[in-house]
Amino acid sequence: MIKSLAVYCGANPGHNPEFIKLAQRFGQELADHQISLVYGGGQYGMMGAVANSVLDHGGQVHGVITQELYDRGTSLDRLSDLQIVPKMDIRKDKMMNLADGLIALPGGLGTLEEVSEAFSWTAIGDNAKPVALFNFNGYYNPLKSMLGKMQVAGFAERDFVESIGFIATFNELLDFMDNYQAPAVRTYR
């Protein structure tokens, strides 16, 4: 059972107000299900909306931010648990270690990089935790298509592609996370 979830998402709000509403609903669901949020420690955009919503609904939030971003004043001040780390690679590793599962809400290049690292670590056997994408209004459909092309071309094994959850509701996320089985570690011939 998932007790903590690392959430990757945009430090910007996006152009559609529905993105922030999604982040707020997601944060409330985390708090309502007593699932702690692990996230990048920021106060802005989707990140801030998720964290503030969890806190507003009585949930627990663990922020992990780089020194550089902290020095720029991007951290959320109301966090009781904010870890400041020297570099982004340490931040990503710490977030993964603190969480029982990982999910990407809509976001940009940083979100894509973080969740892609989580999938690739699954493929080499360094991550046995579930990884999912919240496919809000088909946001991640192009990525799903690209992963399918990688599989057809022989660059990604079916088990790894199928181990990535593309989910559309919070209940679907819980079901995916609670029933997840990591694929066998890749072997090379």
Helix-strand blueprint:
Elements: E1 4-8, H1 17-32, E2 36-39, H2 45-56, E3 61-66, H3 67-71, E4 82-85, H4 88-98, E5 101-104, H5 109-124, E6 131-134, H6 141-152, H7 158-162, E7 164-167, H8 170-178
Parallel strand pairs: 1-2, 1-5, 2-3, 3-4, 5-6, 6-7
Helix pairs in contact: 1-2
Brief digest:
One of its GO terms (biological process) is cytokinin biosynthetic process. Helices cover 46% and strands 16% of the residues.
Description:
With 189 residues, the protein is an alpha/beta fold. It has one domain: Rossmann fold, CATH 3.40.50.450. The protein is 46% helix and 16% strand. It contains 8 helices and 7 strands, in the order βαβαβαβαβαβααβα. It has a 7-stranded parallel β-sheet with strand order 4-3-2-1-5-6-7, sandwiched between helices. Helix 1 (17-32) runs parallel beside helix 2. The protein is globular and about 50 Å long.
